[in-house]
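Hello forum,

I keep getting stuck at the same step: I have a sequence, I want structure tokens, and every attempt I make locally crashes halfway through. Rather than fight my setup again tonight, could one of you with a working pipeline run this one for me? It's a single chain of 177 residues.
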Amino acid sequence: METYTIAEGNHFSFPRLFKFTFQPREIAWKVIFNEDCNYVLRTETGEVSVDQKDWNKLCGSFFSLLSTRNDTAMIGWRYNIEEDLIELAPYYHVSGSRDMFPPLLSVKRGKLVEVRLYVDWDEKTYRWTLTSEEVTQEHEMKFSHNWKLSGFINFYFGGNMPAPQQVSVQMEVEVVE
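Reply #2:
Ran it on my machine without issues. Output:
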């Protein structure tokens, strides 16, 4: 597995993954959140910021080569301070809207998470499955685009605030055809 790191004060992870695929039907990610993913966003007075609830981007696929904010299926992640867990949720940009959903799965740092995106081109449906420690959750979302070329969404911090400390994951991605 490759380690992807976002440095303190930044949004983007390194190394960057520039990979494209044509009409993917299934993309699989194996992910381990490292111990440094226990970030806390604070206000100038030291209180926990409302931005703590913002979603970061773990992985996903975009289908509009002009923008990763159009025709995109992603998994968002954030650190839940009270539970000391990483929350994962489906996150989409479909037909010009931004569609976010409640957490689908919560995981401990250091544990393997298997993330799969299934794209049904006939039914025009994205389906996510998230599996960790024998628990699997699924989510579906309709899409309307006809784009066939797809690029990968990189590990990213934000919302509107940059990473308050280094955060990193171990990840590998595979197009399953």
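The chain has a mean pLDDT of 94. If your local run keeps crashing, start a new thread with the error log.
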